[in-house]
Amino acid sequence: MASDRPIILDGGMSNALEDRGHDLSDALWSARLLRDAPAEIAAVHRAYYEAGATVATTASYQASVGGFERYGVGRDEAERLITSSVRIAREVRDSLTDGRRLVAASVGPYGAVLADGSEYRGRYGVSATALRDFHGPRLELLISAGPDLLAVETIPDADEAAVLVELLAELDFPAWFSYSISGSHTRAGQPLADAFGVVAADQVIAVGINCCAPDDVQAAVETAVAVTGKPAVAYPNSGETWDAGGRRWTGDASDSASLASGWLDAGATYIGGCCRVGPEDIRSLAQTLDA
Fold first, then answer.
1. 29, 52, 91, 95: most buried, per Cβ within 10 A?
2. SS3 label, residue 77
């Protein structure tokens, strides 16, 4: 199921903001700048579009009403900030006239708002009802702001995926769905063949992986396509490894652009980057795939 028309995604929001001089070390992460520096988020979206990205992914990955409230933000303002993530990206997109571009509203996992690394483990120890109560209102807020689609991303656990897919079906809104993986398993340890089977709903227009090692992408894309028959989405990290204890990235970056044509041939239609992948990396990726 090869495609000759890849859709180029953007790269990491947080690393691009850090490169612009912002400290994102608190629990709100990049979502804090929705309140404190929205123009900086807009500048990152513009940089990725200008580098060749077709899709801007909003700065809502770690944004939640509860998370903002813990920082003293009232509920009404928290809801406004979450929807503003879509508005900011749309305004940048609409200011550009050269070609069709999309805005994907980022929906991160429950573990992301805990800010304790559990987004890379899954198995949160909470019920499906609690996950539904967390995700449902946030999905509704983001959809109300008018994105083109949702980016349900970095999901570590097939159990959380089942809750999200049920909500997507009820809300009847298009989304891509990507797991965070390690090798041939989700971060929670489920085989990818089983995990991809959970998300084969009509509203899910592409299935795949993100926030993983580039070397894990090819086999995962092949599995996603074989299980679901849908286009795949693939946007790994730079190849560096996050050291949770030292709170820093270690190791060397790899050249994802050189691998991307293989992902395309395997069935990936949506291709981009995640953590530590910046605008120049996306420029290289776009040029490689255009060639």
1. 29
2. helix
Is residue 2 domain-resident?
no
Distances (CA, A) of 35 to 79, 162, 243, 285: 11, 32, 28, 31
Q: What's the pLDDT tens digit per position in 93-149?
A: 999 988 789 999 999 999 988 878 788 889 999 999 999 999 999 999 999 999 999
Angle between helices 257-266 and 217-228 (to 10 degrees): 20
Distances (CA, A) of 194 to 134, 159, 168, 175: 24, 11, 19, 20
Looking at the structure of the chain, the number of domains it has is: 1
Is residue 216 situated within a structural domain?
Answer: yes
Task: List, in sequence order, every residue forming a beta bridge with 55; answer none if it has no partner.
Answer: 102
Could you tell me the two tokens for 133? 């109560």
Listed as ranges, residues in the chain with pLDDT below 50 are 1-3
- Is residue 224, in this structure, part of any structural domain at all? yes
pTM of the model: 0.94
Percent of the residues in the chain that have a pLDDT greater than 70, as a whole number? 93
187's tokens: 């971060």
CATH code of the domain in which 28 resides: 3.20.20.330
Residue among 17, 66, 21, 23 at smallest CA distance from 42: 17
275 marked as binding residue: yes
For residues 64 and 134, the answer to whether their CB atoms sit within 8 Å is yes
- Examine residue 1 and state whether it is found in any structural domain, yes or no: no
Quote the domain boundaries for residue 170.
7-290
Annotated binding residue at 212?
no
| DSSP string over 259-284 | HHHHHHHHTEEEE---TT--HHHHHH
